[in-house]
Amino acid sequence: MILTSLKDKVAFNRYYDEPAADQIARITRIKKDFGDDLLLVAHHYQKDEVMQFADARGDSLKLAQIAANTHQAKKIIFCGVHFMAETADILTSDQQSVVLPDPMAGCSMADMANSFQLTQAWAKLTAEFGDDILPITYVNSTAAIKSFVGDHGGVVVTSSNAKNIVSWALHRAKRLLFLPDQHLGRNTALDLGLTPENIGLWLARENQLQAENHQALRVILWDGYCSVHQQFKVEQINALREKYPDIKIIVHPECAHEVVAAADEEGSTAAIINYVKQAPAGARIAIGTDNNLVGRLIHQYPDKQLMFLNPFSCSCILMNRIDLPHLAWTMDQLAAGQPGNVITVAPEIASGAKKALDRMLLLS
Fold first, then answer.
1. Which residues contact 214 (CB under 8 A, 6 or more apart)?
2. Residue 168: which H helix or E strand, with range?
3. Which side of the chain, N or C, has fewer Cβ within a 10 Å radius?
4. Do residue 118 and residue 88 come from a single domain?
């Protein structure tokens, strides 16, 4: 339920005036009352105030796997963003409901590709290259995009499995259309041995392909990006290396290729966490990803010299819409027998999207 009336908004605003301790106590009690009928999952980029209640946490791949394997919980409180909750709804049964504490928690990258643009792009690309082209979409996309991809034989990827799945796809089609994140697509393609000449860029707003040699193309990238990972620059890496010669830099593959190339390591959210976990005591590491996660890692591993690659970068403002007041309001709604902000994907869209997601889960 989206708060639309003035009365609803005034009623909700009181949650920002309520003591946090009262909300924490109430959320804890309501969770206990629901028992196994409720599962609260959270993405690694969530705030600590929300993470403290998570029954399970993970990156996009892990959360999709959790949703696919969750059968007992009747209600899944999804502390993430809209496309993640859509994925959870697609992968769970009709007897389960997925609740997003704030329906305005979206994803700017996912919003950079819509069905109309993709239909136009597909028509032009298949007119030029024929049918030997396969669509691949990053999980950071709408259910409608996933549905198109699934209905056209394609697959979903996450940053954890992109290399394996793109490699698989390149053996099955002469060309790939990779959307919506150009940086993950480019970094993955180059890691797999393709050259810049093999990579083109689809300019969605102009509805045209940018490439010098069309016939040499193997991967065509959508011109989307992550606003958070755009904030990391080569200059930041160079400055840290000058100050700390022993430093190691690890960044997320949603960063621009020049940033990834300048770093020591690249990896998904799960890979970054594992890298830090396995690093020896005293290791000096700068991390280029969402600062909510980086701050948590710094606190979790005080024996290591962890730091922000860009301490002034903004965390995902849309992910951060899920906060303690929204979670408290959601739990109060459920306790009162109200549904909360249930995310429901229409059956005609879910069927195609599930094909693409099932292919991903099978290949992961």
1. 128, 129, 200
2. helix 162-170
3. N
4. no
